[in-house]
Amino acid sequence: MNLTGFANLITLSRLVITPFLILSILNDRYIISGVLVFLAILSDWLDGVIARKYNDVTKHGELLDPAVDKIFTISVLVAFVEKHYISSFVVFLIVAREMLVTWFRSVMVSKGIVVPASYLGKLKTTAQLAAIFLLSVNIVMYGSILLWISIIIAYISAFDYLKIFIKDKAWS
Fold this sequence. Notes:
GO molecular function, one term: CDP-diacylglycerol-glycerol-3-phosphate 3-phosphatidyltransferase activity
CATH architecture: Up-down Bundle
Radius of gyration: 17 Å
CATH superfamily: CDP-alcohol phosphotransferase transmembrane (TM) domain
Pfam families: CDP-OH_P_transf
Order of helices and strands: HHHHHH
Low-confidence stretches: none
Strand content: under 5%
Structural class: mainly alpha
CATH class: Mainly Alpha
InterPro entries: CDP-alcohol_PTase-I, CDP-OH_P_trans, CDP-OH_PTrfase_TM_dom, CDP_ALCOHOL_P_TRANSF_CS, Phosphatidylglycerol_P_synth
Number of helices: 6
CATH topology: Four Helix Bundle (Hemerythrin (Met), subunit A)
Catalytic activity: a CDP-1,2-diacyl-sn-glycerol + sn-glycerol 3-phosphate = a 1,2-diacyl-sn-glycero-3-phospho-(1'-sn-glycero-3'-phosphate) + CMP + H(+)
Pathway: Phospholipid metabolism; phosphatidylglycerol biosynthesis; phosphatidylglycerol from CDP-diacylglycerol: step 1/2
Shape: globular
């Protein structure tokens, strides 16, 4: 079976889902929001599984997937700010960490230092997506708590990247 590029199409589906998810959040359509978040989470898992299973891991996909993840996450978090579910400070903390880690990883890759995703990074993503799901279905208190937990995990994992960055003198 030839599925060349199919994983990237699944990744792009998250981008297509995002504006509809934002509109459903802003218009208090909690069931639709929950279903769309579930589909986005499923697509994030499925694109990786398909790419690996059918040997369709590409440089485009390796760059596209995290970019779409960030667009999805930041866009949805901004919708939650507009709904007054979370503060803009929360979004700042998440965006700042993501941009710094992306920079660390980019510099390290340019120096030939490959740093695979860590357990903490995966735990952060899981907690963050669970928080987004809870917030999208209007379970604001637990969603907010889980989002803060994901931020704490995110900064611990960012510190791990910083230690590698410094140890390997990636800045030179």
